[in-house]
Every structure is written in C-alpha cells, then in structure tokens.
Amino acid sequence: MIALKVAAHLEPLGVLPTGARDRRWLDNPAITDKLWPATVETFEMTLISGALAVLLGLLLGLALVTTGKRGQHSNRVVYEVLSQVVNIGRSLPFIILMVAILPLTRIIAGSSLGWQAACVPLTVGAIPFYARLVETAVNNVEAGKVEAALMMGASGNQITWGVLVREALPTLIQSATVTLITLLGYSAMAGAVGGGGLGDLAVQYGFQRNQIDVMIVTVVLIVLIVGIIQLAGDMLSRLVDHR
Predict the structure, then answer these.
(1) Among 170, 182, 167, 192, which residue's Cα sits nearest to residue 240?
(2) Whether the Cβ atoms of residue 205 and residue 214 lie closer than 8 Å to each other
(3) pLDDT for 201
(4) pTM
(5) Given pLDDT bands bounded at 50, 70 and 90, which one contains residue 72?
(6) At what angle do helices 35-67 and 76-91 cross, to 10 degrees?
(7) Taking the mean position of all CA atoms in its chain, how far away is CA 118?
C-alpha cells in the first residue's frame, strides 16, 4: 500500500519505481489512456483552424488578385498594403507568433492553454500562408477565359467565383491540403508549449520521461495522419478537375 502511494506521488514527476518505468507499448498508460484523447485534440486543432484559415485565406487571396495588376478593381496602394500584411504574417516563426498574440488568444479563447487556445495562433499563422497560395493559383488561370466571360456580360462576382475560383479549384484544393499538413506540424509545436495534442504527449512522456515507445507511436501516428490528409486532398483535387 505504501509503495503504491509513493508511486502515485512520483509518477507526475516522471520518477517511477523500476517496474513502472519498464512498462512499454500496450502496457504503458501514456499510450493506452492518453494517446486517443491526444489524437482527437490534434484533429480538432488541425481541422478547426484549417477550415477557418482556408475560408479567410481564400477571401484575402481573392482580395489580392482583385486589387492586383490583372484584377477587376486594380489598386496599387491597397494591393501593397495587403501584400505586406501577408508577407509579415508568413515571415513570423510560429513559436514567436504564439507568444506575440497571447493577449488576443486569451480574449478569444479565454485562456492561453489547451487545444482551443492553440487554434487562435494556428489560424492566424495559416491565413497569410494560404492567401498567397490562392493568389498564385488564381493568377495562373488563363486570361482568355476571363476575357470570354467579360464578352458574355458576366458580372464581377460571376467572374471571380464562376471563372477564377472554378478554374483554379483543383490547385486551391491542393494548396488547402498543403496548409492542413503544415497546420498539423504547427499543432505539434503548439502542444510542446501547453497546446495539448500529440505534440504535448510526445514532449511530456516521450522526451521528458524518456519513454521511447511513446515517441515512436506519436511520430508514426502523425506520419499516418499526414498520409491520409494528402491522399484525401489528391482524390478531391482529381474529382473536381474538369480540364
């Protein structure tokens, strides 16, 4: 009884009796009890921040295209301001961004810890990244298709959504896939500083407590998730490609 009480007090500190330290793989509570909740948190962080980043990044990217040289409402000043905002957002390392916007995170999420709080910097960091990918994809649409739509009397919204977005959709989906995979990596970094998820599990148990099995399992799981996201993105991209 005394030994069990001592082990219970020492376990949070990573100082366990020899028998407890020898527990590995399916006998390790870090894997049997904590792996699934950490995986769910990683999915929640990635999908929620990814959906918001794709939506807002698409709008920002279209704003860049519209105000650019080839845009329907070309405005050099507005374009340069938006472009610099995107450049600054893309240039900030994610860890620095997390710290820099902690006050905003607390206002939105009510805390700076947990996967909900991690969604804020993840979204903010991914919006300019995806916006630039959107600008590149849309600008690669053939100018002749836009001119043909103008000759047929298409409105500005019809050209933007019916021509530019529609023609660039396969590339936009591929760009969204890249963004989601990038966010998955960022979510692991967020977990290392209290954001939860697989990154938190890998640091707390795999690194700090030297549980190699936990580290291996989390790495393999992240690789599998990346493969699934990439496969789904490739299939969806081919499905909407009408060229």
Answers:
(1) 170
(2) yes
(3) 83
(4) 0.81
(5) confident
(6) 160
(7) 10
